[in-house]
Each structure stands twice: as C-alpha cells, then as structure tokens.
Design the sequence.
C-alpha cells in the first residue's frame, strides 16, 4: 500500500476533526449534564 503526502495529510485532518468533535461533544455533555 503506497502512501502519498496528500493521503497522509487528509487522514490526519479527518482524524483530528473527529477527535475534536468527540472532545467538544463530551465537554458539552458534561457541562450541560
């Protein structure tokens, strides 16, 4: 499986975005709960 720069950057951004959304959702849930 070849790795090119764009794919690596794209996956990193997607992972970071999902991670951020989960963290924010958990913080909001704890804050409102």
Sequence:
């Amino acid at each position: 499986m070849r790795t090119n720069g764009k794919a690596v950057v794209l996956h990193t951004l997607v992972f970071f975005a999902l991670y951020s959304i989960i963290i924010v959702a958990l913080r909001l849930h704890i804050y409102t709960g």
Q: What stands out?
A: The radius of gyration is 14 Å. Residues 1-33 form one domain.
